């Protein structure tokens, strides 16, 4: 069944009275008196205010997601009960907002709600830190990213679309993941992926059939390596960032041996940049999307500082990993 356009939802949200089945909300309005929202591939997220004055994110779907109720029932349960510091509690509300549309039936449509998370996107924070050449803060961000990734790995879950736009950094430096449409949980085993994620962060051979705890592996390493390289070469962001990536792009993964960045990083004075660039090159060439030694890489990343690292002493690397 076709779903309403984002402008259809925008009209409904602008006239919120009587439109919602259970929610008592009004929209945040911008300077033009239009609802504040963010548009994505599958949905639009509106910033709303509850009767109690709390900010609420209301996600309205513009493209059909297979098994949506089942997926979000599992995700909502995880976010509410897992005590994971990197996710936000949410609710899936079927038949919640009434929308009149020129392309879809006039009907009540499902929404997902969660607290509106204040913070800046990871990409924005990285830009600020690179502009300031703040190596210490970039190293701290790299450690924080490694801890987030280790937490997901140890739980056997995956976000499914890790990229700079889907990670928020709070004023306290805490990281939060947003956009759970493609999240993998063990109880969803057997379903296909809803999407393949941003191409500048994903394994070049990832397909819809890949839907398990390994789907985040490659993007975890892409972001980790990018943050570490930028710690020593912040000017790379100005030269390689295009808004849809950090510094690496899909072409670096499809032709890793021809990648100027990966070749340059293979000779970096920092051991971790050299080592992780080698692992990423190997992973990009591999037929599978999982990275078997990723946990060891992330453990080493959790202890880094802003100084170039030397290779570990022989015989100690496996012990400390």
Automatic annotation (TrEMBL):
SUPFAM superfamilies: Protein kinase-like (PK-like). InterPro entries: Kinase-like_dom_sf, Prot_kinase_dom, Ser/Thr_kinase_AS. Keywords: Kinase, Serine/threonine-protein kinase, Transferase. Residues 31-321 form the Protein kinase domain. PROSITE patterns: PROTEIN_KINASE_DOM (PS50011), PROTEIN_KINASE_ST (PS00108). GO terms for molecular function: ATP binding; protein serine/threonine kinase activity. This is Serine/threonine protein kinase.
């Amino acid at each position: 069944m076709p779903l309403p356009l984002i402008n259809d939802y925008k009209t409904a949200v602008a006239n919120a009275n009587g439109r919602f089945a259970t929610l008592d909300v009004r929209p945040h309005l911008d300077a033009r008196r239009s609802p504040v929202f963010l548009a994505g591939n599958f949905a639009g997220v509106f910033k709303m205010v509850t009767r109690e004055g709390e900010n609420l994110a209301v996600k309205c779907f513009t493209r059909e997601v297979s098994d949506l109720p089942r997926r979000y029932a599992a995700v909502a349960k995880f976010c509410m009960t897992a005590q994971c510091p990197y996710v936000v509690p949410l609710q899936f509300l079927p038949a919640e907002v009434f929308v009149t549309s020129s392309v879809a039936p006039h009907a009540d449509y499902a929404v997902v709600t969660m607290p509106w998370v204040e913070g800046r996107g990871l990409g924005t924070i990285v830009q600020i830190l690179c502009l300031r050449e703040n190596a210490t803060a970039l190293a701290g961000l790299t450690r924080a990213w490694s801890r987030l990734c280790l937490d997901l790995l140890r739980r056997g879950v995956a976000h499914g679309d890790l990229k700079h736009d889907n990670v928020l950094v709070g004023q306290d430096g805490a990281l939060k993941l947003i956009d759970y449409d493609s999240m993998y949980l063990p109880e969803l085993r057997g379903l296909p992926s809803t999407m393949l994620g941003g191409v500048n962060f994903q394994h070049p051979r990832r397909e819809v059939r890949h839907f398990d705890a390994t789907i985040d592996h490659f993007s975890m390493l892409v972001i980790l390596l990018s943050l570490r390289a930028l710690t020593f070469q912040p000017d790379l962001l100005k030269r390689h960032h295009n808004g849809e990536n950090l510094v690496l792009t899909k072409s670096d993964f499809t032709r890793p041996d021809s990648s100027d960045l990966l070749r340059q990083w293979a000779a970096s004075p920092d051991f971790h940049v050299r080592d992780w660039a080698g692992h990423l090159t190997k992973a990009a060439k591999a037929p599978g999307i999982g990275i078997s030694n990723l946990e060891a890489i992330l453990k080493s990343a959790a202890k880094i500082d802003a100084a170039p690292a030397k290779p570990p002493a022989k015989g100690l690397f496996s012990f400390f990993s």
